[in-house]
# Entry
Amino acid sequence: MPNLVDRETWLKERVSLLKEEKAFTKSRDALTIRRGALPMVEITTRYVFESEEGPKTLSQLFGGAQQLLVYHFMFGPDWENGCPSCSFWADNFEGIEAHLAARNTALVLASNAPLETLLAYRKRMGWSVPWVSTLSTNFGEDFGVSFNAEGAMEGNGYNYGKKPYAGESPGLSVFYSLGGDRVAHSYSTYGRGLDMLNGAYHLLDLTPNGRDEDALPYSQAWIKRHDEYV
# Structure
């Protein structure tokens, strides 16, 4: 049951919490500055992705922007549908491309499924975000989200751990154009680091019940594709 109090008591508690929220915001701002100041690594592997417009290199995915966000969407080569959790995240991306472009940044989804499978699923979901197939590359392995091949980059067990997960895992990688075909990798995040991308979760975090996941078999057991809720 809710903890019901008078307005004066509530306001005192709210102002106390606000002080903590402001401290957290300042700490987060400082962390954001550190994240942006990370050194970068130039990409020397020539990745060629399958896109709606034909084969594209990593530098061509920028589409003229200076920065590129790649969401590693869990969709294996033989899967019929995309991951429900990744679909939940992708729902939060719809409509933001123009805003990102205004800050010289592009966004694409990347998965190991064949391109025609990805585009059919995107049509079903009603998304417009560009999606590329990495099926003919080691892109997923190299950036720590696919664990089906040998020879991946050093230190890329999932979330920079030593133990790889089986099959596919989610993540986001950030790239920076060095001009021409030259591209640098500036940042990647995985697991709970992806929380910042999900506006729906943050809206739920503002409510008394929050995400309401504690009694579930696992935290995201409730999530379905948006056309599967009854």
Q: What stands out?
A: The longest strand covers residues 171-179. The mean pLDDT is 94.
